[in-house]
């Protein structure tokens, strides 16, 4: 067996990436709940993306409280709870497996491969994760908001390797190319593979530091092709 493990990205790979319209619709709903001007709320929300992704804000509630202070508005516990519920609803709607995702993971597991996850995300994902069909199939799931690290920091890949007890050269990394994740995986010695989503309208999805258009390494266009890579 050439590889011992396969590590996946989450959004855009195992589940659909956030649609920009749905994401911004939820932001508008949260701003309305907090009675905050949308443009000002949006600016502070995006400005604090890094703090959400690395867990500097320990909870979504902390982030919302901070935004309230920045905008000099009073946020009640009821408002904070409702705003959080809107955000959790968005996350839950997108943590639905892509077609074939569970089947592919089950096949990999049955064939003896260790399965890992590394995701740049805020606290909603690890909270919802245990209730998804993915949770029992993974040997290690690393979320940036709980690890305090995010891709492409080599330490987050090394943490996954440590938890899986495999060497980097024994590991495939499958991602959609967001957040310079493929370069990060290559730098620690994994074999990175871009999962390119055919027909995706890049103007309609939420992406950061996307490298898929310039990636010159291995490319697949469906999760099912992962099975060919591990042979």
Explain what you see.
- It is a single chain.
- A six-stranded parallel β-sheet has the order 3-2-1-4-5-6, sandwiched between helices.
- It is elongated, with a radius of gyration of 18 Å.
- Helix 1 (20-34) runs antiparallel to helix 5 (77-94), helix 2 (38-47) packs across helix 4 and helix 4 packs across helix 5 (77-94).
- The chain contains eleven helices and six strands.
- By secondary structure, it is an alpha/beta fold.
- The chain starts with a strand and ends with a helix.
Strand content: 5-15%
Q: Tell how many strands the DSSP assignment holds.
A: 6
Structural class, please? alpha/beta
Number of helices: 11
Roughly how much helix do the residues carry, as a percent range? Answer: 40-55%
Q: List SSEs in N-to-C order.
A: EHHHHHHEHEHHEHEEH
Total of domains: 2
Largest sheet: 6 strands, parallel
Radius of gyration: 18 Å
First and last CA, distance:
7 Å
What is the level-2 CATH architecture name of the largest domain? Answer: 3-Layer(aba) Sandwich
- CATH fold category name of the largest domain: Rossmann fold
Oligomer: single chain
CATH first level of the largest domain: Alpha Beta
Per the principal axes of the C-alpha atoms, what is the gross shape?
A: elongated
Low-confidence stretches: none
């Amino acid at each position: 067996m050439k590889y011992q493990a396969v590590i996946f990205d989450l959004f855009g790979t195992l589940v659909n990436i956030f649609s920009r319209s749905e994401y911004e619709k939820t932001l508008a709903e949260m701003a309305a709940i907090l009675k905050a001007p949308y443009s000002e709320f949006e600016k502070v929300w995006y400005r604090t993306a890094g703090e959400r992704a690395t867990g500097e804000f320990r909870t979504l509630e902390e982030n919302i409280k901070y935004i309230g202070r920045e905008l000099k508005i009073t946020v009640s516990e009821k408002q904070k709870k409702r705003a959080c519920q809107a955000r959790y609803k968005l996350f839950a709607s997108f943590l639905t497996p892509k077609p074939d995702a569970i089947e592919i993971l089950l096949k990999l597991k049955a064939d003896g491969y260790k399965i890992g996850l590394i995701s740049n995300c805020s606290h909603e994902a690890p909270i919802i994760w245990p209730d998804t069909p993915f949770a029992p199939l993974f040997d290690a799931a690393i979320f940036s908001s709980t690890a305090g690290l995010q891709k492409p920091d080599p330490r987050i890949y090394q943490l996954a390797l440590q938890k899986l007890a495999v060497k980097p050269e024994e590991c495939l990394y499958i991602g959609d190319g967001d957040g310079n994740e493929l370069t990060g995986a290559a730098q620690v010695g994994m074999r990175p593979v871009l999962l390119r989503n055919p027909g995706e309208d890049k103007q309609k999805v939420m992406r950061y530091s996307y490298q898929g258009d310039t990636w010159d390494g291995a490319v697949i266009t469906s999760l099912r092709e992962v099975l060919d890579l591990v042979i």
